[in-house]
Amino acid sequence: MSDFQLDKHQVCRHFGRAARSYEQHDVLQREVQAATLDRLDFYTSTPMRVVDVGAGTGRGSAQLKQRYPKAEVIAVDLALPMLRAARRHSSWLRPLIRVCAEATALPLADRSVDVLHSNLCFQWVDDLPALFGECVRVLKPGGLLAFSTFGPDTLRELRAAWAEADQQPHVSRFLDMHDVGDAMLNAGLRDPVLDVFRYTLTYSEPRKLLDELRGLGATNADHARERGLTGKTRYRRMLAAYEAMRVDGRIPATWEVVSAHAWGPPVGQPRRGAGGGEIASFSIDSLRGSRRT
What we know:
Layout: H1 8-17, H2 27-38, E1 49-53, H3 59-67, E2 72-77, H4 80-85, E3 97-100, E4 113-119, H5 128-138, E5 139-150, H6 156-165, H7 177-187, E6 190-203, H8 206-216, H9 232-243, E7 251-263, E8 271-272, E9 278-279
Parallel strand pairs: 1-2, 1-4, 2-3, 4-5
Antiparallel strand pairs: 5-7, 6-7, 8-9
Helix pairs in contact: 5-7, 6-9
GO molecular function, one term: malonyl-CoA methyltransferase activity
EC number: 2.1.1.197
InterPro entries: BioC, Malonyl-ACP_OMT, Methyltransf_11, SAM-dependent_MTases_sf
């Protein structure tokens, strides 16, 4: 597992600032959202509660409400301005419940969610055991978790260009599919299926990519990032290095997307503990015993 840590407050600040501009730059997010929604075809029951974690401006939440009109759809996001922006995707006919909360601390009862959905949010959580442990806690037995997240090859060109300028981390790091899959199994999720897709977007110049990242709020939130301003010399060196990567006159940017789904475990199914053993939990009401009188 990677030992990097994210600055949670910086993540929240970046996405809060991007609430108004997000949907002007979310072309890739929409494309990945469509693929993530396709995974919901595996869920053949009629859900009563659907939760969208990292809902952002609520476009995906509205699509979930359209797909499941009778379900209670809850849009969860860490950034309150994003949830305020999501209001425009909610209506009296298809209302969304908007909740400001972290993915690792969902204000939901145990085993209360039929479908747990997340599109390109989990990469902003660095504690995978806590994240997937929370997914297991809120999912009903047999409930579906479907999500997408960025993999380590994301923005590899930008990362390489910055490496030509200095040795500071300027691009957020993301976890490998195998780390994600191991964390899902350790948490007790059943039958996880993971796939990797790569998208390449192109730009007329590197600054267009940087503007897009700012507009999405997807800027560096690594704890180890340099806190001061980047000098003009290093910045120009990075731009020059990126310019050398042009293909057919365009600047490429790779996005590696890990897409996955899994199922909520039955009550009492063991999960792997931190020390390598297995832990099983039961409701006290489900335990049968006898007593002497």
